[in-house]
Write a structure and sequence with these properties.
By secondary structure, the protein is α/β, with parallel strands linked by helices. Helix content is 41%, strand content 15%. It is built from 16 helices and 17 strands. The strands form 5 sheets. An 8-stranded parallel barrel has the order 2-3-4-5-6-8-11-13, surrounded by 5 helices. It has a 3-stranded mixed β-sheet with strand order 7-9-10. Strands 1-17 form a two-stranded antiparallel ribbon. α7 packs parallel to α9, α13 runs parallel beside α14 and α14 runs parallel beside α15. The radius of gyration is 21 Å and the shape is globular. The two termini are 14 Å apart. This is Cytosolic beta-glucosidase-like. GO terms for molecular function: hydrolase activity, hydrolyzing O-glycosyl compounds. Keywords: Glycosidase, Hydrolase, Signal.
Length: 488
């Protein structure tokens, strides 16, 4: 049974960061209020058939109005850090500096940041969590076009300049792999481009890596000395376990999967500065269909390599991987492996979400060994329940998930010497779960989306996490450790 490993109580290193996260489109609402421009997620969710039940982020958790209440709930949990994202079109309605800054949007984020700090909570800000200004999509086709690197850098510069006196932790992008593959290959996410050739997805990734590096260098040369903050990127990293560790074909299929899914963005930034071989091979095959080939010059590589002060890890689940023979002439390396799950793995509400706590420890060790032993901030980890009546307030599934995953983080720190500095629970509250709308709930707080006041109520997991934060882990004798051992 590889579901669980032993639970080992213990405490985290002093100064360990405990946080929770949200993202602008998923919580703010106020999509067309106070001068905000339209984003690609506004356009996408307003297009019939794109999101379950026709749900939209028009109101979402109404955090544009209710951020003070959110901060009080955070304070009640003893949270000292909070990760949230800025909506680019709330600040620059058409995405460009030339188009003008929206002062009301700037005021809103100043208020959020000040409210957090006044309550002893340190902000961690994601610059881009998927809500591109629609105007940049219309004008350039979005991330497939390198013209937008300049606009992203201008936006990032403005954010550093305006908020960087108070914000010391930045993430340039949330999950480039997800945004490029779901937004530009499968089309399940905004902007909804369906291109099974992978050409658009690969170009998206290429632009994004350049934009990321540009923003990091901007911070490094212009703001670091004055502001003293850190800039990283949040990558969605999966753990792939070979179906048969003694079968070389499965082991190499697993290696290909890890390269494709994790290495696409991790290797250029944290590895040798270039794409993994599987990506390069795919690019070679597609060359005839490409107008601009996603290959890095030596200059690109040296700009991208090392362009992060820490690695943000969004991790949720694992897969068992086996070899799948392909026809080299007609099929791509993307199809050369197969991923499954084990029947004993507990399932969340999201169809992709299986609890495999030991996968996180193995992933962290892999990061240490393959990506230069960086400082690691776990920027997301969490569990979904359904939108059921009565709502799941005694959310033992979520508590089990958190306690087992957090315990594996502790093992990675103590036994594998991985430099994990932060753990972030996704999410502070139930919110707009992209294509799934409000049908999947990841929150430590329940949000009633049928009530126009969007009341929030702490779930049992919120008090569990509060105890973890207060105890800096699971010290022997503490109440939280007893809960854990009872559930075990
Ligand atoms: C994150 O995405 C987002 O950053 C956040 O906004 C979102 O609300 C949260 O997670 C919960 O979904 O496991 O091989 O089947 C994570 C999105 C979706 C990425 C599923 C990996 C499936 C790949 N994940 N996806 S696999």
């Amino acid at each position: 049974d590889r579901t669980r490993d032993d639970f080992r109580p213990g405490t985290f290193p002093d100064g360990f960061i405990w946080s929770t996260a949200t993202a602008s489109y998923q919580i703010e609402g106020a999509w067309n209020v106070d001068g905000k421009g339209e984003s690609i997620w506004d356009r996408f969710s307003h297009t019939p058939g794109k999101v379950d039940r026709g749900d939209t982020g028009d109101v979402a958790c109404d955090s544009h109005n209710k951020y003070r209440e959110d901060v009080q709930l955070m304070k009640a949990m003893g949270l000292k850090y909070y990760r949230f994202s800025l909506s680019w079109p709330r600040i620059f309605p058409d995405g460009t500096v030339a188009g003008g800054v929206n002062q009301a949007g700037v005021d809103y984020y100043n208020n959020v940041i000040d409210e957090l700090l006044a309550n002893g909570i340190t902000p961690m800000v994601t610059l881009y969590h998927w809500d591109l200004p629609q105007a940049l999509q219309d004008r350039y086709g979005g991330w497939v076009n390198e013209e937008i690197v300049e606009h992203y850098d201008n936006y990032a510069t403005f954010a550093f300049q305006t908020f960087g006196d108070r914000v010391k932790y930045w993430l340039t992008f949330n999950e480039p792999m997800v945004l490029c593959s779901l937004g530009y290959t499968s089309g399940e996410h905004a902007p909804g481009i369906h291109d099974p050739t992978s050409v658009s997805g690969l170009s998206c990734g290429h632009t994004l890596l350049k934009a990321h590096a540009r923003a990091w260098h901007t911070y490094n040369t212009t703001f670091r000395q004055l502001q003293g903050g850190k800039v990283g990127i949040a990558l969605s990293l999966l753990w792939a376990e070979p179906r048969d560790p003694d079968l070389p074909a499965d082991v190499s299929a697993t290696d290909r999967a890890m390269q494709m899914i994790n290495g696409w963005f991790a290797q250029p930034i944290f590895g040798d500065g270039d794409y993994p071989n599987v990506i390069k091979e795919t690019v070679q095959k597609l060359k005839s269909q490409l107008t601009e080939v996603p290959e890095f010059t030596d200059e690109d590589k040296s700009l991208i390599h090392g362009s992060a002060d820490f690695l943000g890890v969004n991790h949720y689940s694992s897969r068992i991987t086996s070899d799948k023979p392909i026809d080299i002439q007609t099929q791509s390396v993307f199809e050369s492996f197969q991923m499954t799950t084990a029947p004993e793995w507990p399932r969340g509400q999201s169809d992709w979400l299986f609890a495999v706590p030991w996968g996180l420890r193995r992933l962290l060790k892999y990061i240490k060994e393959h990506y230069g032993d960086p400082d690691v901030y776990i920027t997301e980890n969490g569990w979904s329940d359904g939108d059921v009546q009565p709502p799941v307030m005694e959310d033992t599934g979520r508590i089990c998930y958190y306690m087992t995953y957090i315990d594996e983080v502790l093992k990675a720190i103590e036994e594998d010497q991985v430099k994990v500095r932060a753990y972030t629970a996704w999410s502070f509250m139930d919110n707009f779960e992209w294509t799934r709308g409000y049908t999947e709930r990841f929150g430590l707080h329940y949000v009633n989306f049928t009530d126009s006041n969007r009341p929030r109520t702490p779930k049992q997991s919120a008090s569990f996490y509060k105890d973890v934060i207060a105890n800096n882990g699971f010290p022997k004798g503490a109440e939280v450790t007893r809960i854990v051992q009872d559930m075990w």
